[in-house]
Amino acid sequence: MKTIHHPAATRGNQNHGWLKANHSFSFANFYDPHKMNFGALRVLNDDTIAAGMGFETHPHNNMEIITIPLKGDLEHKDNMGYSEVIKEGDIQVLSAGTGIEHSEYNKNTDKPINLLQLWVFPKKKGINPRYDQLSLRNLKKEDEFYQILSPNADDQGVWIHQNAWLHMGDFTNDKEHIYHLKDKSNGVYIFVIEGGALVDSKKLQKRDALGVWKTESVTIETENKSKILLIEVPMEF
Questions:
Q1: Would you say the pTM of this structure is higher than 0.85?
Q2: Average pLDDT, integer, range 205-218
Q3: Cα(9)–Cα(77) distance, rounded to whole angstroms?
Q4: In what order do the strands lie in the sheet containing 202-204?
Q5: pLDDT for residue 163
Q6: For residues 117 and 235, what is the distance between their CA atoms, to the nearest angstrom?
Q7: Following DSSP, what letter does each residue of 194-227 receive, concatenated?
Q8: Are 91 and 148 in contact (CB under 8 A)?
Q9: Domains of the chain and CATH, by start
Q10: What is the CA radius of gyration of the chain?
Q11: b/e string for 176-189 if b means 16 or more Cβ within 10 A?
């Protein structure tokens, strides 16, 4: 087993007033040659957007973009004709493919929104752009990891054009979990949203992360009142 530890304090951070951004990997004005990606996971941004503010229309291409609002609601508009609100407890996927343009704004005028946005390299370039959105409320299971994304359109959760899986866990009790990788050539990036966990003798606290690969499974000891995101992606692509 190989591991890489990314404490929350080592993330890049930028404060634009209306936007407070934390970058797990090199992004925008944050550059660290040792933190370019974890396998096919290129971006993991932890953004807080002020009330009524957001990103004006901008382009993307050949990237799988996943957005998970943690607190608050995000208004999305794109040139494919979608005008949607991604609510707290939802997950959204944009397969940018040959190219899309979209805007993202805090729907709420009285409070900030906090969201996670992931960018994953696709397994094939030049695909037709697509949009998908789903509420996670019906998938949620207390005290165990539940799947929220996969490579398969007929599987649980949303899907993307990559051999990747996302699992979320909401834990009310201290418990040991064994996560079996779907593909043994993949790695898994364990990101603690709230609370804490012990993974491979590494103590992880809020917003800490640990990347694990060259293993078929990983044991995660979760703490009470923890929320954890597992991001399984190809290490070579």
A1: yes
A2: 98
A3: 33
A4: 175-180, 217-222, 197-199, 202-204
A5: 98
A6: 20
A7: ES-EEETTEEE-TT-EEEEESSSEEEEEEPTTEE
A8: yes
A9: 11-135 (2.60.120.10), 145-234 (2.60.120.10)
A10: 17
A11: ebebebeeeebbbb
